[in-house]
Structures are given as structure tokens and as C-alpha cells.
Amino acid sequence: MQIYLPIAEVSVNAFLLFGLGGIVGILSGMFGVGGGFLMTPLLFFIGIPPSVAVATGATQIVASSFSGVLAHFKRKTVDLRMGGVLLAGGLVGATLGVMIFNYLESLGQVDLLVKLFYVIFLGIIGGLMFVESLNAIRNLKKGKKPPRKKHSPIHGLPLKMRFRVSGLYISVIPPVIIGLFVGILTAIMGVGGGFIMVPAMIYLLGMPTKVVVGTSLFQIIFVTGFTTMLHATTNFTVDIVLALLLLIGGVIGAQVGARIGVKMKAEQLRVLLALLVLIVCGKLALELLLQPSEVYSIATGGH
Length: 303
Fold this sequence. Notes:
This protein is mostly helical and about 300 residues long. The protein has one domain (about 1-290). It is built from 10 helices and 4 strands; from the N terminus they run ββαααααββααααα. The radius of gyration is 19 Å and the shape is globular. The protein starts with a strand and ends in a 14-residue tail after the last helix.
């Protein structure tokens, strides 16, 4: 069933969009990521303009993250205090990110730069996560306990706060900086930032993996919601019809994903997430490097 998307100005199969939302929702519930790192490139692949994909993809992330976080609230694996600190940085970052995005769009370079951002970030993050996760699995098989860093430069920073759910007493500066960085990425790339947030919370802040997923989703809801509002009111690239179809699939998928995630080991989840990130990165890199079937095209811009 073909449906016309008024802002994207393309016709797409409605069931395909519903399915994409469902797949990304499952990933959201399993890994604690908003799924935008996968959703936005998938929208590129089916012909949605990158500027519309970035702004509208953020809408779907809000719904799938909200659905996923409800499941984590039931299990009491959400650190609200840590989520609030990350959120403070995230809202400032999202505002800066939308300003950068609008500037790039005024130069006419936003489509290429968004794709380049994806290839670089997904390649680095996916590679690091994959290597680390394989090492963790190898250590588990040998019966070694993963080394827990008790002292790092982060523990010496001022403005300390106690995060009881995470069992931490650390400075608020690193979480605010992580939130700020992820907020900028959310606005420019249409991602929830979970693929950076989750590893940063585990390896930099030292949070337990079971708490990381729910806390990451909690923060993602508000930052992506705020980003969507900014995109909708400043550059008018949020396609409501596209968002609605992705939302329905995402909400259902997130509940399924949360149930699957509970039954899997943290190390297995991280390996799977790393592989997904690398696959999407490879596909995007090929699209940028290979000569397109139509060498010349006429683009019509304007709102």
C-alpha cells in the first residue's frame, strides 16, 4: 500500500515503514538505544531526503524509547538522578545542534555531511564496542572477572553527587559533558545517541549495565522530543505521516525488545549492537564511495 509523504515529497509503502519502526523498536528495548543510528540510515536507503529523515527519525525515537523505559521502570533499573544530569547537558547540546544543522542546510551541504558523520561515528563506535565485547566474552569463558576501574581521572573531579541506583559517587561534570555531546549528535544526525551514551555510561562513568539501558532511554525521550520540536518549528522538516507510521511499529517493537534483552547476557547484547553499527556504517560508506546510477540529478529545494 503506497502512501504519499507530504514533507518528504515521496511515495513509500506504508507496511515497509511500519516494519522499519518495529525492527528499530525491538533494538531500542534490547539495547537501550533510541534506534536512530539505524532508523535514519534506513530512511536514507528507501529514498527519504536526509534532512527529513533526521528530523522525523527523532520523533520515532521518542515513542520507542518511552515504550522501552516503561518496561525498565517496572524492573526499577532507571537511575532518575543520573538521567536528570545527562538531560541537563542534552537539552543544551540539542539547541546547539539544531543551530549547526540549520547553518549547514543554508549552505546546501547538510545531506552529504549527515552521511559522512554517520560513517565516521558508526565506524569508530562500532569498532571499539566490538573489540571490547569480544574481550569481555573471552575473559568470561576463562573465568576471569572483568577488571573494574576504581580510580580514574573522573573520580578526582569536583561537584560530586551520589547516584544511589547506580551505586556511584562521582562528579556531575562528566555526565553533563556526555549529555551535551549526545544532544548535539541528536540534532545533527537524528539519533537518540544511545550508541555513544550506553558505552560512555558503562566505561567512563562505571555504571552497571542493567541500570544503563533504562537510564539511557529515559534521557533520550526528552532530548529527542525537544530536538523534534526545534526541527519542526525552525526548518519544517518533520513529516507527520512518516512519523506516525514509524511510531506505531516502534512502540510495539520496544516492548518485544525489552523482553528479549532481559534473557540475554550483557556481553552478548554489546557484540550484537556493535555488529549492527558496523553493518550500517559499511552500507552508508559504500553508498558514498560508489558511483550513483544517476550521475546527474535535478534537486528542487524550498519549503
